[in-house]
Amino acid sequence: MTDKTGRLFEGADWDFHTLQRIHDACEGVAKKELGLDVYPNQIEVITAEQMLDAYSSVGMPLFYKHWSFGKHFAFHEASYRKGLMGLAYEIVINSSPCISYLMEENTATMQTLVIAHAAFGHNHFFKNNYLFKQWTDADGILDYLDFAKNYVSQCEERYGRVEVERTLDAAHALMSHGIDRYPGKKKLDLRVEEKRAGRRRQHEEEVFNDLWRTVPKGATKSRSVLSIERRRKLLGLPQENLLYFLEKSAPRLAPWQRELLRIVRHIAQYFYPQSQTKVMNEGTATYVHYRIMSTLHKQGRITDGNFLEFLQSHTNVVFQPEFDDPRFSGFNPYALGFAMMQDIERIATNPEAEDREWFPDIAGKGDPMGVLRDVWANYRDESFIGQFLSPKLMRHLRMFHLHDDPEERAGIRVDAIHDERGFRRVRRELARQHDVGFIDANIEVVDVDLAGDRRLILHHHVIKGSQLNETDAKRVLQHLADLWTYDVSLIEVDANDKVLREYVVSPRPIPAAA
Amino acid sequence: MAHIVDRRLNPGGKSLENRQRFLRRAKSLVQGAVKKTSQERDIKDVLEGGEVTIPLDGMHEPRFRREGGTRDMVLPGNKKFIEGDYLQRSGQGSAKDSGPGEGDSEDAFRFVLSRDEFVDLFLDDLELPDLAKRKIAQTESEGIQRAGYTTSGSPANISVSRTVRLALARRIALRRPRKDEMDELEARIAECTDEDERAALVAELEKLKAKSKRIPFIDPIDIRYRRFETVPKPVAQAVMFCLMDVSGSMSEHMKDLAKRFYMLLYVFLKRRYKHVEIVFIRHTDRAEEVDEQTFFYSPASGGTLVSSALQAMHEIVRERFNPADWNIYAAQASDGDNSYSDGELAGMLLTEKILPVCQFFAYLEVGESGGSAFDLSDSSLWTLYDRLRNSGAPLSMRKVSERSEIFPVFHDLFQRREKQEKAAP
Q1: Searching chain B, which residue's CA lies closest to the CA of residue A471?
Q2: What value of ipTM does the predicted structure carry?
Q3: Among all residues of chain B, which has the CA nearest to that of A175?
Q4: Which one is the CATH code of B235-414: 3.40.190.10, 3.40.50.2300, 3.40.50.410, 3.40.50.300?
Q5: Cβ–Cβ below 8 Å for B87 and A45
Q6: Model confidence at B126, in pLDDT bands (50, 70, 90)?
Q7: CA distance B150 to B159
Q8: Domain residue spans in chain B?
């Protein structure tokens, strides 16, 4: 496949044969040397405009239509045109085949980098990490998105754009609370999901008989008063997946509205693992591209000049500004992830006495790739940092922990630093910072007043005194109330069950009642 | 096995529909922003599209967000702190929020509108008055379009490719000997030593030559001509008359106001009609048709006779713009001076000759900046037109003295409304 010199390419230009050669070379390294296991690759070359399109539909190649995507598009386009924002070199989609979008203006070196990064690094992570295995269905996602797109447009035709838009607006507002956080239900199979929706609609149409409405009802059964426990059990409460709860229990939603909620919920669930594995995912991909590029260079298939070009973009990507640097905006997941992967490699091959004490399982084990593959498969950010952040790396990055209590007059306390006393505390705090359980507000449905005014009661369990932003909370609750169609109340309680604040929102009247 | 796909040629504009939805939803906000932007701009670039800023309020996508409370953060790059130190809250780097603050950066939202989007929104609630009148009367002109091939026609319309194709087919069907066939035969004759064989070959060559003469390379029956068909085409053309008083009393400022108004009108007509002509008529005490440069910039002096301009317009219409074929719009700008004796004639010309053929006639009275002139009594021309209007003539008239008033006045004139300034047929 390669030419006589064995080089994959010369200079910056590339064509589609070059891409194929690059891909094959990367594949060789990835499979033989790193032992990666990947979905088949599909590499697509796109323009800047198409990249902007992809940005606005959360990176997916197809999506249903909604104004908010148009808003994001307009926003990205404006900032791109003004030069405020560069575009990503690539976008990769967790699907099978794994689709990677490459920008046409990348140089040959950059194409090699992004193929190694996305088509092998991310791809391996998607296929092997337990969260992705558990929560996402890479085979079905594209078909499901296609189904969702068609379903939404059919609904628009049948029930009107305004109605559909209102339901989707509400569903989007609740999207971050439309996720099952705990496994237990069976894994989603999106293909089956799509067929099920079709069958249900068909069934409804077949059995629809307007006459039933005129059949006299029997005498109403005397309603036995349900005990609170029983009632909550029947409704599956407490329930933290608000969209699921509405889909199943909201009294006055039309079937198509429930289906829309279900679609939004499934998509939210699909993206859920990504938000929990930012550090690991990027760390893996960066580590993989670094290894592949180094190997290709060692084999003489990339020139020194091109390798230097690679190193420059690589160091830009893994740059971690310090906290007092104006460029600082939190930990860079690429930098932290890559540093930790390299650190694990070091511990496995060349440990110090300290590492043997901290990581008895992996220190000096040899086979760094085996250790890393195991880590990539079985951890998420929170547990990964909690287990594998080494004292050496903490010292190297000079990490310290600040505790900011508004009550404290003296200022912000330095709680722990990178010393013998602080290692474990710093590590625990950093792990918590990457735990979505702490990042997202903990809101759940606790009760419904079925016998009375059907008010829906939610609790927000306040952690560390951090309450909801009032304007946004009211707006989201308004959407929730519109779907529920009765009053909704949200109570913020602290750890001692003390009520901090209560919101009550009534549904807006539906302009054109169906 | 990897698939490598080139998506660059896929049709673009995938986000167009979402963008349209967004604009529709944000319409009132965007429209307000467009109006505001356009007031600050020069009229020349007013319709160039470009960036607008809208408040994000109605476009906000709410989420449950947490804020406040005690915060813990782990940061990199410790230089001098030890456990138990306290940092001052205000003004130190470490208090920087570690998460990107979304709330503040998004309360105003900037984005870029294309030229068409801009013009559409800019002129969205405006409407050309009295469009219905001419719609029925619109004549149809004839256009031509391609319609297949024909066996007869003018030589200019010969379709070479089609002709050659047919000729080739005919030659193959009739087995016309090909040139390389005969060349080969000749070569063999040249090499041939045996007399008998040579004679046979020569005979064969002669036969082929005769056959190729019988079957011509191109025969008249091969020739095809491109055929054209005439199709009726609705007329979509308008003429816009710009009448302006250029007597000494008109200052640069006043001319500038008029110019801006004409430009808006031009853009507006351009949006409706494929073809818009402009006729500039300037007048003092006599009128002349001039080009744009002269119209706006060349000095003139003299008295003021409005009727002269109206007469000129009437003649031009009669000569060049048949009202049945053209939608006629006229806008007159003046400071309002007119010689007293001219009123009668001008009024007559207007009501009897001009207004019946016009789609729309607007009178714009321009004043000095500051508007003090309008505190005085109405000008003679205004009084005249006002009287005509009250007696039912379809006249639109407004006064303008500031640049910023041009758009509102224009907007006011063309606003979609119930039949108000409409007159008898």
Answers
A1: B62
A2: 0.77
A3: B63
A4: 3.40.50.410
A5: no
A6: low
A7: 10
A8: 16-39+48-56+107-122, 150-226, 235-414
